[in-house]
Design goal:
The complex is a heterodimer of chains A (278) and B (171). By secondary structure, chain A is of the alpha+beta class. Chain A contains 6 helices and 12 strands. Chain A is 32% helix and 28% strand. A 6-stranded antiparallel beta barrel of chain A has the order 1-2-5-4-3-12. In chain A, strands 6-7-8-11-10-9 form a 6-stranded antiparallel β-barrel. Chain B has 7 helices and 2 strands, in the order H-E-E-H-H-H-H-H-H. Classes of the chains: A alpha+beta (278), B mainly alpha (171). The interface between A and B is large, with 42 and 39 residues.
């Protein structure tokens, strides 16, 4: 026994090294699992406070673009509102199912931290569980899909950006109605890939790719990107499609978190039928 | 805690703040990252206890991870170079050995020695960091490009910073 202790003591540096590296490896593996409520990430109050200070300094340099975007979004919303009002005036069909009419609720949030150059990029926003945000909610901006909520603290939340090699969004080519998944390859922050579009489909450059609404996280029809390159290898099962993302992640300032009221209901009925949540 | 201990303690926070407030936003050509924070580990006195070194490496890496949302990734890479550091220092001992209380800096041991010392360690750090982050070798050449670009960027920044540091006159 004494010899064992002597052995361990003699190689204590190596054993400490081993223990620390195992702890790190465990943390990495743990963190790769999808949704979680970790304390040790940038949704933690001190870290998020510091990052939001850094962001607010940088924001001064992009105020003009942010303003333009907000003004444009405002105008667009006003047009849509006007149109809706007119439609309502024309045919006064009343929808009784208020849950379906108000299926999606939007919470506006400011981006506190954002990265675009890593393989696994995350975004920190300044709204958390106090504003009703939960892991798994979808996040969009005025330009298109942004990502999913990964973890929340009281006042902040961390999102998995579409620019994350672990993230997949179920999408559909709007013109042809073929389903696929948008998955980033880790290379360029403006481009992503649309996978699993079968051979017999005919995607064309310029087609828009929107969310499919198949997983109840994203509402149907949120713009993800525009097809920029299509390629079909001989004997390949699927098309190689490169899309330009609708949202330029380099200049993300404000986002909307989407609360889906029917998500629990839909998940639970899918669970009872398939035995798993999609 | 003696005087240099206090200085190191303050330096720890300076490195973390510079990393997360400034360098986190600074990526050249989409590929060159500057992970200046590892200079904290590399520039510690040569005779630092290896156990203390690894614990500091872990705490430092873990703190950086919180801001990069990459649980354990920076900690893994930093603990690894903290472990290798002392073996590498022993392997490249100049003729006649190190002076007592010497630090592992350009001023104490010369530029050539410092590059021989820091380049492989930073290379190991970046290699582990980027390949673990990419979780595999699918993007091998692009990841290699990131590693080499970041290596050059990081090493140039902390080598140049040493010429600016106020400790220079005292050494």
């Amino acid at each position: 026994m004494e010899r064992l202790f002597n052995f361990i003591y003699e190689y204590r540096a190596f054993f400490t090294f081993l223990v620390l590296e195992l702890v790190c490896a465990w943390l990495i593996i743990e963190n790769n699992q999808f949704q979680s409520t970790h304390f040790f990430n940038s949704s933690n109050r001190v870290a998020a406070g510091l990052l939001s200070f850094s962001q607010s300094t940088r924001e001064y340099f992009s105020l003009r673009t942010i303003n333009e975007n907000l003004a444009r979004e405002n105008a667009e919303l006003r047009t849509r509102l006007e149109r809706e009002l007119q439609v309502q005036a024309l045919d006064s069909v009343t929808l009784n199912d208020s849950a379906r009419v108000n299926q999606y609720q939007f919470v506006s949030a400011k981006v506190v931290a954002n990265s675009t150059h890593l393989y696994k990029n995350f975004i920190t926003i300044n709204k958390g569980s106090f504003d009703g945000i939960e892991p798994g909610m979808a996040v969009i901006s005025d330009q298109g899909a942004v990502g999913k909520v990964k973890s929340v603290s009281d006042h902040y939340a961390v999102l998995i950006s579409l620019l994350n090699v672990d993230e997949q969004v179920s999408s559909v080519i709007k013109r042809t109605n073929h389903f696929g998944s948008v998955k980033w390859d880790g290379l360029h922050m403006r481009y992503s890939n649309l996978l699993f579009i079968p051979r017999h489909a005919a995607p064309a450059v310029g087609d828009s790719v929107v969310t499919s609404g198949y997983n109840a996280i994203f509402p149907e029809g949120v713009l993800v990107g525009i097809i920029r390159e299509v390629n079909l290898k001989e004997e390949a099962m699927f098309w190689d499609i490169r899309i330009e993302l609708a949202q330029d992640f380099g200049r993300l300032a404000f986002v909307d978190v989407i609360k889906s009221k029917l998500k629990t209901e839909r998940d639970s009925i899918e669970l009872t039928t398939h035995g798993e949540v999609k | 805690m003696n005087r240099s201990g206090v200085v190191q303690f303050v330096l720890f926070f300076v490195y973390v703040l510079v990393q997360v407030l400034i360098l986190r936003n600074l990526v050249l050509f989409n590929t060159a990252f500057c992970f200046l924070y590892i200079a904290f580990i590399l520039l510690l006195p040569i005779e630092t206890n290896p156990l203390a070194l690894m614990v500091m490496g872990f705490v430092l890496g873990f703190t950086i991870d919180i801001f990069y949302d990459s649980m354990g990734l920076h900690a893994l890479a930093t603990v690894l170079i903290s472990y290798l550091r002392n073996y590498w220092l022993a392997a490249i001992t100049p003729q006649g050995g190190y002076d007592s209380n010497s630090t592992a800096t350009v001023m104490a041991n010369g530029l050539q020695w410092f590059l021989v010392y820091s380049l492989p360690l930073v290379f190991v750090h970046h290699t582990v960091l980027f390949f673990v982050e990419a979780s595999g070798f699918t993007l091998f050449w692009y990841t290699m490009l990131k590693i080499v670009a970041s290596l050059l960027f990081t090493v140039s920044v902390f080598t140049l910073l040493q010429y600016l540091s106020p400790q220079r006159r005292r050494l």
